[in-house]
Specification:
By secondary structure, the protein is α/β, with parallel strands linked by helices. 38% of the residues lie in helices and 13% in strands. The protein folds into two domains: 192 residues, UDP N-Acetylglucosamine Acyltransferase, domain 1 (3 Solenoid); 57 residues. Helix 3 runs antiparallel to helix 4 and helix 5 crosses helix 7. It starts with a helix and ends with a helix.
Length: 260
């Protein structure tokens, strides 16, 4: 038991640069308090003391601002960072090493009692601030959910989900975006996503680069035509030819606008 408590504290010291000491974590981190109160509530829930489990959960919500149903399953080294307004449903499962930020909802979309209504998070999943993960599906190991995303379908391992409704960005090389060489070393991404994880920006940058490349090729063609028709004064004075020889497409400025 004490080893698990030390693990709970250490995972916060590892992932939060603002955490300065063990004493500060133990006394001032509501996410840790919510985890510690959830464990007796979960035990009561599964041993026939459902009212007591709900009461402990209700007290934890009042104390920490984090609402975790006593029926939810939470693994080891889970970190609720800031976490005010987090809601975790009855049949939700949170894997080892997950990080969940403020305003997150792990909710259900079904009214059938006893059914798997809430999501299952794999290991090392990052759910960013304000995200809503709704439904009884799985979010794979190492996946990331972007801020304010609304996820209503499964997320593959290592992928990133952003937007409303969430769009899925596959992981690079089929691996978790949080894993580097060696595989045991994790590169933690605070709040889940970076500029490279926005699919709309990626698409816009692709279109901009393609248009710039096409204009460059057209300019080269007109330059070749001008050389071939240099003896022809009429072709040499052709305004469209002169305009096309100089590239006007400002790809660099456009890429800056979309966040490159």
């Amino acid at each position: 038991m004490f080893a698990r408590l030390r693990s709970d504290i250490q995972c916060i010291l590892d992932r939060d640069p603002a955490a300065r000491s063990t004493w500060e974590v133990v006394t001032c981190y509501p996410g840790l308090h919510a985890i510690w109160l959830h464990r007796p509530a979960h035990w009561c829930w599964h041993h026939g003391l459902k009212w007591l489990g709900r009461f402990i959960s209700h007290f934890a919500r009042w104390l920490t601002g984090i609402e975790i149903h006593p029926g939810a399953k939470i693994g080891e080294r889970v970190f609720f960072d800031h976490a005010m307004g987090v809601v975790v449903g009855e049949t939700a499962e949170i894997g080892d090493g997950c990080t969940i930020y403020q305003g997150v909802t792990l909710g259900g979309t079904s009214l059938y009692k006893g059914a798997k209504r809430h999501p299952t998070l794999g290991k090392d999943v990052v759910v960013s601030a304000g995200a809503k993960v709704l439904g009884g599906f799985e979010v794979g190991d190492g996946a990331k959910i972007g801020s304010n995303a609304v996820v209503i379908k499964p997320v593959p391992a290592g992928a990133t989900a952003v937007g409303i409704p969430a769009r899925i960005i596959p992981s690079k090389a089929g691996q978790s975006a949080d894993v580097t060489e060696p595989q045991q070393a994790r590169k933690f991404t605070a709040y889940g996503i970076t500029q490279e994880d926005d699919p709309l920006s990626q698409a816009m940058r692709g279109l901009i680069d393609n248009a710039s490349s096409q204009e460059h090729q057209i300019a080269l063609l007109w330059q070749a035509i001008e050389k071939l028709s240099a003896a022809n004064q009429q072709a040499k004075d052709c305004v469209p030819c002169d305009a096309a020889i100089k590239e006007q497409f400002e790809a660099g400025k456009l890429n800056e606008l979309v966040g490159k």
